[in-house]
Amino acid sequence: MQWVDNRLPLPRLVYGAIGGGYPVPRNLNYWWNFGVLAGAALAVQIITGVVLAMHYAANGAVAFDSVEHIMRDVNGGWFLRYAHANGASMFFIVVYIHIFRGLYYGSYKPPREMVWLLGVVIFLLMMATAFMGYVLPWGQMSFWGAQVITGFFSAIPLVGENIRIWLLGGYAPDNAALNRFFSLHYLLPFVIAGVIILHIWALHIPGSNNPEGVDVKGEQDTVPFHPYYTAKDGWGMGVFFLIFALLVFFAPNMLGHPDNYIPANPLSTPAHIVPEWYFWPFYAILRSFTADFILPAKLWGVLAMFGSILILFFLPWLDRSPVRSAKYRPAYRIAFWVLVVDVLLLGYVGGSEATPKFLILGQITAAYYFAHFLIIVPIISRIEKTRPLPNSITEAVLAKHDGHGATRDGAAVPAE
Ligand code: HEM
């Protein structure tokens, strides 16, 4: 290894990134597993995707049949396809938890703003990739999903329709659209992998945040990444693949829509066009605008939908509180949990039919979503009375174990 390192310092890089050379706060809880799990999910998508691409045909006349050929004729093809389709869901579950972990513990705050901003870029790229991937099997939902989503662009005044035709390479989704979506769907995961490298690079400058949200003060507050967090992440990985396997082997179509097993038909619109579950909250925001007000309702919907993600870019500056962890921010903690419920409700509305009842619920929850970031968090961050922070991570860890006589690693607890 020394011989390689002298000629190409790759071993040094690995040792410094995930080896014994990377000191990590000693108190990270299981919510800190999700970054590594997101990386694992991306790896699964790339590996299964590259092999699927060997058998898939991006041509409107045969795309649907080529997927059925993968399911029936290709050795292990059903497994590859189910792993890839459910892998996308697993990826989004993990990343949503990863984002909410950051929101709860204030990981977007200084000095980790760049880690957060790059995370939002990754999230946008993930959404684009997932959308284009869903078009590829060329079923009814693929076709009509593409029709609806590219239809957003025609909401742009004057040039919108031209942009849409340019993006699709035609007046409706067809061969040209399918080909370019396939090309970009293959490309973007590698762009995501590149941005992840930047994401982790930016993280390694200040190092990881932690559940207490206080800075590391000296060696006693950290442990080496290996073996402590390689072991903890390894355990999390086991649970992740167990749940993933349950989906793939026992409920592979649970999260999909049955209409996508009907070949795309431009002459037959499905009764309800719904995107995949991970887009539901955004779909609910899009549908919340029903009346024209200065701008057409459709344009408001599109602006609000993109705005709901873009707003995340400004979060580090909207939340001015110097205290990171919600553990020490009683008011913010309540706002956080209300936001969780709000986003779950938005998801429920986005996946349901647009009846008047759901429309109103969608409008209220969409308005609250924006109020959380633009009004509630800025105000709380100025007036909230935070709880006193521990002096150090070690102090917090020891306090937690006080009364039991010993800390986790067996060291005696200093008497108070
Ligand atoms: C493919 C997607 C992603 C991958 C592979 C990834 C990977 C990672 C890894 C390995 C870590 C360090 C371990 C951890 O803290 O969990 C991390 C930390 C972090 N990530 Fe991500 N991430 C992704 C997406 C995102 C997104 C979408 C956001 C936010 C919008 C985000 C925000 C953060 C933040 C703020 C941290 C620092 C956490 C802390 O130290 O408390 N990440 N990420």
UniProtKB/TrEMBL annotation:
Any GO molecular function: quinol-cytochrome-c reductase activity
Main location: membrane
Binding-site positions, a ubiquinone: H204
PROSITE patterns linked: CYTB_CTER, CYTB_NTER
InterPro entries referenced in this protein's UniProt entry, alphabetically: Cyt_b/b6_C, Cyt_b/b6_C_sf, Cyt_b/b6_N, Cytb/b6-like_sf, Cytochrome_b, Cytochrome_b_C_euk/bac, Cytochrome_b_N_euk/bac, Di-haem_cyt_TM
Taxonomy, superkingdom: Bacteria
GO cellular component: respiratory chain complex III
Membrane topology, record value: Multi-pass membrane protein
Gene3D superfamilies linked to this entry: Cytochrome Bc1 Complex, Chain C (1.20.810.10)
Biological processes per GO annotation: respiratory electron transport chain
All copies of domain Cytochrome b/b6 C-terminal region profile, residue ranges: 215-391
Cofactor info, note text: Binds 2 heme groups non-covalently.
Ranges that cross the membrane: 30-58, 78-103, 115-136, 142-160, 181-202, 235-256, 300-318, 330-348, 360-380
Cofactor(s), by name: heme; heme b
Protein name per its UniProtKB record: Cytochrome b
Taxonomic lineage of the native organism: Bacteria, Pseudomonadati, Pseudomonadota, Alphaproteobacteria, Sphingomonadales
